[in-house]
Amino acid sequence: MADQAFVTLATNDPYVKGALVLGSSLRQHNTTKKLVVLVPPQVSESMRKVLHKVYDEVRVVDVLDSKDSANLALMKRPELGITLTKLHCWTLTEYSKCVFMDADTVVLSNVDELFEREELSAAPDPGWPDCFNSGVFVYQPSLKTYSDLLHLVTEKGSFDGGDQGLLNTFFSSWATKDIHKHLPFVYNLSSISIYSYLPAFKAFGGNAKVVHFLGKVKPWNYTYDCKTKTVKSSSHDQTQTEPEFLSLWWNIYSTQVLPLLTEHGVVKDTATGLKAEEITESVEHMSIAPTHPTISSEERRERWEQGQVDYMGEDSYENIRKKLDSYLQ
After folding, report:
1. Looking at the chain, which residues constitute the CATH 3.90.550.10 domain(s)?
2. What keywords would UniProt list here (predicted)?
């Protein structure tokens, strides 16, 4: 329908890469909805031109910042204050219904059925399931809702300093009132939660429709090494991102997005160091190998106690099994 749209927010040029991959994945899976991206003034003009190649509308919006440094400090994510700019999505009143998706998500299949849901429909947050995760949600644009949200954030702020805390306060009945507004987890599958409940991921992960790359390290923060044909993190990725999903993101980026960046004269992509055609040829053979620092046994124990388990490394099931076998023998 012409009056329904998928909406995202690209707060800076690096996040534009994510938005381009998201939009390309929606196009790839034949969405019938409009695609809209919100950008603040600091997004470069060259990147906006590329966005116009994928999105039906590129709308420049003012930056809303919670300036709530105390609450943001609790999350150790001060950059999330700018995500309140997401509230501008309620001003898109030319659309009767929208689905907002963070720029660090990617769709694995057609998800147009989300528009059958009502406001505010969202999936549980893996860290606190009585709250919804604001990375994917169905909503109805309304200037009144926009005004009420601004009033709430001015009067009470956000309990996490970002949009998720604010939206969960505003739509506080989500947890208890209407189960039909609870999206299945497959519509907002966190790459981090995969390793907190690995058996469930193995059982149901094949049904995933939307993957959300939560955490500080995003797919575009990885570097492609053409010599070893691996993707390496520029910083220590402790979120344990699923390699299969990283590979999927990079495949879309290299085959559909990077050619657009090259075509529009955007500076050589620093995340890859390769020309578009070089990546296109080799991406099918690449493997994902984020590097992890060697830690002491004391630090490893401390991480265990904090719930930070290296399920794919030293703390993998295979390694634990081998240790148990050695004791039994």
Report:
1. 4-190
2. Cytoplasm, Glycogen biosynthesis, Glycoprotein, Manganese, Metal-binding, Nucleus, Phosphoprotein, Transferase
Whether the CB-CB separation of 259 and 329 falls below 8 Å is answered with no
The candidate with the shortest Cα–Cα distance to 145, out of 105, 109, 91, is 91
CATH of the domain spanning 4-190: 3.90.550.10
Peptide bond into 120 cis (omega under 30): yes
CA dist., res. 28 & res. 108, Å (int): 9
Given a contact cutoff of 8 angstroms between Cβ atoms, the answer to whether 124 and 176 are in contact is no
Per the CB < 8 A criterion, the answer to whether 107 and 63 are in contact is: no
Per residue in 269-306, pLDDT (tens digit) is 444 444 333 444 334 333 333 434 445 555 555 555 44
Over the stretch 49-86, which tens digit does the pLDDT of each residue have? Answer: 999 999 999 999 999 888 888 888 877 777 778 888 99
- Residue found by looking up tokens 């929208």 in the block: 98
> pLDDT tens, 173-192?
999 999 999 999 999 998 77
16: nearest Cα among 27, 5, 28, 24: 24
pLDDT digits (tens, 9 = 90+) for 187-228: 999 877 666 677 888 888 889 999 999 888 898 988 765 455
233 sits in which H/E element: strand 230-233
Collect all residues with Cβ–Cβ distance below 8 Å to 229 and sequence separation of at least 6: 282, 285, 286, 287
Nearest alpha carbon to residue 280 among 269, 294, 267: 269
What does the chain come to in residues? Answer: 329
Q: Which amino acid is at 66?
A: S
CA distance 77 to 80: 6
List, for residues 130-179, the tens digit of each pLDDT value: 999 999 999 999 999 999 999 999 898 899 999 999 999 999 999 999 99
CA–CA dist 292, 189 (Å, integer): 23
Nearest to 91 by CA among 157, 197, 9: 9
